[in-house]
Specification:
The chain is an alpha+beta fold and 327 residues long. The protein is built from nine helices and twelve strands. Strands 2, 3, 8, 9, 10 and 11 form a six-stranded antiparallel β-sheet that branches. It has a two-stranded antiparallel sheet with strand order 1-12.
């Protein structure tokens, strides 16, 4: 009798123990599965932000002068933004030399220029040399003759048609109407010109890379030692390039062609800055008193570029937070 009672108690204990063990094991299993499920839906870390670039934005410059205007083209979308007067014009000065060289090279096609011609084309860009530019201008079919009916000469006329310019006109200063430097252009057209050079329409397939390389090798500063006004050439590596952080300039070459002349008929500096990369084309055009120095205009161009850098250096970039946990 006692043995049967002991056996009953033993069996009961085993059964009860099993019942107690099963929920505990199930609870542990359920917890592990829940943790595994939670870990499996954790979102990956956010992707790194895109590299800095120039993008449409507000620009504020304490400018004193007769004319200040700028425009920026996003070369991927073709959209142009800028100041309210970005369609207003000013004289191009040496900025137009980039087109003059491009127009000459495109007409060459697959032919090679002579060593003298190629050297002149290079000096027109790198050193903004007027004599070299005049030589290339004539080779491209240009002259200082004034066409009838207010029309520009053939070189500028081709710029208007090939690059889809809408505001560009020949000069209107008496006695200088046929001069390439007095061509009137807006910042809006200037960025179109930069885009036209960069995409190959201006210089053609054979010479575009060469021209952009020359534009990236412009040299010389605004310092007196680099400016040779009496000789018709001078340093032009200033302006927009000085407003770009290393995070942009390290992405690839920056092509540029500035224009600057101290003119006495209106007692103004006429200063223009043009720069272009694979992503954007930016132009700033100014007229201000000759009592100021060239540095004044160069600094304004740099300030516009710096304000358009996106994101701003050191600025916080807002990144959307990814959800973590159960979906």
């Amino acid at each position: 009798m006692r043995s049967r009672v002991i056996m009953v108690f033993a069996v009961t204990a085993v059964l009860l123990g099993g019942v107690m063990l099963v929920p505990a094991a199930y609870a542990r299993l359920s917890g592990d599965e829940a943790n595994a499920a939670q870990e499996s839906v954790a979102a990956p870390p956010p992707a790194p932000p895109p590299p800095p670039t120039l993008a449409a934005g507000k620009v504020s410059v304490n400018f004193e002068g007769d004319f200040f205007s700028w425009a920026l083209m996003d070369r991927e979308s073709g959209k142009i933004s800028g100041s309210k007067n970005m369609a207003a014009t000013s004289s191009t000065e040496s900025m137009i030399k980039a087109w003059i060289v491009a127009d000459y090279l495109r007409q060459l096609g697959d032919e090679e220029p002579t060593a003298a011609q190629k050297k002149s084309a290079s000096k027109a860009i790198r050193d903004s040399d007027d004599s070299s530019t005049n030589y290339i201008y004539r080779m491209a079919g240009g002259s200082y003759a004034v066409p009838a009916g207010g029309q520009p000469g053939p070189v500028i006329k081709r710029a208007i048609s090939i690059c889809d310019l809408t505001d560009t006109k020949r000069g209107n200063v008496k006695g200088y109407e046929g001069w390439w430097s007095f061509t009137r252009m807006s910042p809006r057209d200037a960025v179109r010109l930069g885009d036209c050079i960069a995409d190959g329409r201006a210089a053609g397939p054979k010479w575009t890379e060469w021209l952009l390389s020359e534009m990236s090798k412009v040299r010389g500063t605004t310092a007196d030692k680099d400016q040779h006004e009496e000789k018709g050439w001078g340093g032009g590596r200033w302006g927009i390039i000085d407003g770009l952080p290393e995070s942009i300039t390290s992405q690839g070459p920056v092509g540029m062609k500035n224009g600057w002349t101290r003119l006495y008929y209106d007692r103004n500096w006429h200063v223009n800055c043009l720069a272009v990369t694979e992503k954007w084309s930016l132009a700033v055009m100014l007229r201000y008193s000759i009592a100021e120095k060239l540095d004044y205009g160069a600094d304004v161009c740099a300030s516009v570029a710096a304000q358009l850098v996106t994101p701003q250096p050191g600025g916080a970039l807002k990144v959307p937070q990814q959800p973590v946990g159960k979906l």
